Amino acid sequence: MNFTDTKTTQATDSQPSLQDSRPAQTMDGCQAAAHVAYAYSEAAAIYPITPSSPMAELCHEWAENGLKNIFGSPLIVSQLQSEAGAAAAVHGALLAGSLAVTFTASQGLLLMLPNLYRMAGELLPGVIHVPAKSIPPHPLSTCAVHPDAHPGRDPP
Question: Could you tell me the pTM of the whole model?
């Protein structure tokens, strides 16, 4: 698999076509997000935490195997010691001009908020993939709902 080897069909005057000649694949949301993140990013700061672990692990595996992204080079992956560290590393990569990405879950997103507000204030275009998981009243909830992304969207 190589993200630079995509082939498109010829577009007609009436309707452009971006069909890929490769066969379709069945995958879950984490794998689909990992494909997009790997293909369109130059750097990833990861701290694998359920349910975002598969995205980070796939990107790390592909980078170790030398898979090239659309820029013709493997993704630079750094595994950090905390969610706050991953957000700070993405912040630094964005300040340096890199296209950076990270993956987190609901509780991790809450730990990233100080850096997220700073990145937003500096108008830095980073991407954070957040799979659905609730912010529970107890630590072992795995309910799949979407309020986990609200703290990053709403101002303090």
Answer: 0.73
| Joined tokens for residue 86 | 């991953």
Detail the DSSP E strand segments found in the chain: 43-46, 76-79, 100-103, 127-129
For residues 136 and 22, give the distance between their C-alpha atoms in angstroms, rounded to a whole number: 41
- pLDDT by residue for the chain (156 residues), tens digit each? 555 554 444 445 555 545 667 788 888 888 999 999 999 999 999 998 777 888 999 999 999 999 999 999 999 999 999 999 999 999 999 999 999 999 988 778 888 888 988 998 999 998 998 886 555 555 555 554 555 566 666 555
What are the beta bridge partners of residue 121? none
Distance (Å, rounded) from C-alpha 19 to C-alpha 13? 16
Can you tell me the distance from the alpha carbon of 69 to that of 15, in angstroms, rounded to the nearest whole number?
28
Q: How far apart are CA 120 and CA 102, in angstroms?
A: 15
